[in-house]
User: Fold this.
Amino acid sequence: MQRILFCLLCCLPGFLYAQVNWSGSWITNTTDTTITKAPFFRKVFHTGKPLQSAVAYVSGVGYHVLYVNGKPVTDAVLEQGYTRYDKRLLYNTYDITALLANGDNVVAAELGNGWYNVQSHAVWEFHKAPWRNTPRMLINILLTYKDGSKETIVTDRSWKCTTGPSQYNNLYTGEIYDARAELPGWNKLGYNDASWQTALETHSPGGVLVPQEMPSIKIIRRIKPVSVKQVDKDEYLFDMGQNFAGVVTLKVKGTAGTKVTLSYREVLKDGKIDLAHNTEHMRSWPGELPFQTDVYILKGNGGIETFTPQFTYHGFQYVSVKTDAKLDKNAIEGLFYSTDFEEAGHFTSSDPMINKLYEAARQSYRSNFLSIPTDCPQREKNGWTADAHISAEIGLWNYKSAPGYRKWLNDIRDAQTPDGSIPGIVPSNGWGYDRKDFTFGPAWGSALPIITWYLYLYEGDTAAIRENYDAIKKYTDLLTSEAQNHIFKMGLGDWMSLVETPVPFTSTACYYTDAVLVSKMARVLGKDEDVTAYTALAEKISAAFNKEYYNTQTMQYNVTTATALSTTVYHGLVPEPALTKTVEQLAKKITDNHYHADFGVLGTKYVLPSLSDNGHVELAMKMLTDTGYAGWAHWIANGATSLFEDWPGEFSHNHIFFGDYCAWFYKTLAGIRPDETAPGFKHFFIQPSFVSQLTFAKADYQCRYGKIVSSWKRNGKQVMLEVEVPANTTATLKLPGKKDQLLQPGKHKLTI
Assistant:
């Protein structure tokens, strides 16, 4: 029997940091990972004296729902946050003082599989994860009495366990819930648990316990269907009107044993949900619950029954409900799940398409940050590293998402091997390390240095640099060891492009930026030798890149896709004499292509700023809002409420990695730009672009010092610009043809 005792620091609003002596044991109900029923646990305890406070410290993996005297301790869902469980475990801290009574009390919990015990089959093979085991939990409840004495209630063999109505739960597939097996009052006092089994003491999942400092996942929006149609005698089709991540709450009335099957999908085919769409990565075995399906079996008590899946989530716009029971439009309600980040920024403009694009990017971002930054909320739910770093600025402008990224950078370090390798997805169960694997390479693995730098740039977070520096340096050194004469030839390239750009071109450019970032971070940390070494490395990579791809006579690159040209500009590789020519060549390519996109995920990050920062903001704006194929506005014009994985829309309809234009709205249209010499917006730039397509644009952003506002509006031939500079900061106003102007804290109104 493994006992555990360790000291950690933890924090709870209203409580000071305190030393917590963990004691007790991890408990489970079985050692069989194929058991599908979700376990119940409960323990009755007595408080005989007046309480000062009661704090519950809980780690329950994969997921847990905790009750005290029948009431949930939080409105969060899908707790605990996802990590590589054999490396790092999160715990939550709950103030349960108000839920306790003087005398007898009961604490109860239900556990779900989450990522800890994946029981379905997909190409990612999480059912073979090295950490896989049965759901388990560790709880310490610290009781502090008014007389100063303390008592700790812990998980051990004194807890009782059984199974209930949840027959099956899985992230990729869904849940099966048989209401006939409900145990009324199981989490309350007075329930007779004499027939329950004794909980099994078991071992820890293996990871170091740390507090979950990022916000939990919550219901951020409730969504009513816009329509319902009866498409067959026993099938109803609900259209939620928007694509999002989460589940639905079902309300239904019928006889005992009536089965309700809910199937969640993004697209329709011949008037019904397309059951094949986005299922290519699933490898369902006979008898396995289908992809994105929940099943509810009625208990038939004569009243309205309510069902909300607890241990899964889906990505969808449409829900097919098959049942013999009669349903109407009010039978389901959508629950939009996302990590509960506070809002940090907002953008609006005079152009309806721009505003719709803005909302679509936010919709996809929220759908793809559930404990980790993901690619899509339906078929994969994986932490693809490029998706994360390409979309990170969207998150940092719009939400107070830095704690989520700090947590995920820990996950990257947990996934990094001793030689420095970083897999294509994080957390990883072992997939994505092989050099033959197409994901290995800096376009994806650069998530570690890039996001670390963003935290410094936007938050002034030097701690993130100190914490991640050695891992970043190790990764960059690995790239150097595997590059050929400083040309890095492996990895994913401009994924989902319509015109191919050679992988060595984009990989080497990203490798160059990694070296640059190491030198910058070394300067922040005062590591002068590393500043010199990695500055020199960056120069060698740049020289090798231009030797390979740049013609000094013609001052042109020999790869001329939009992605390639913008890569040289965005990464700062193009020689200064050729900058104008390269940008003009890019602009001509976009114009000749009728303002349509033929680039992929890397191009979506590079093209717009390469144009707008070099005299072609009107062209960038026209390209962004053109509704022809292919392009962002083409999706919106054809009814999209979120962003797609690919221009044709054949794959996921809720991806975030094409959405960096949302950050471009803040930086270019509103013109709020951070200054890396004064990080965290201690000083920043106001450099708006008064594009002819807009009559006004406005952005606000809550930095660590207060609210920044940049708002402009046309008034005849003049532009009225309003800027708000927070206390203890300054801003420099930069306008074409005008002298830079230093703005002090306060509100400024200017006529231009």
Q: What stands out?
A: The radius of gyration is 27 Å.
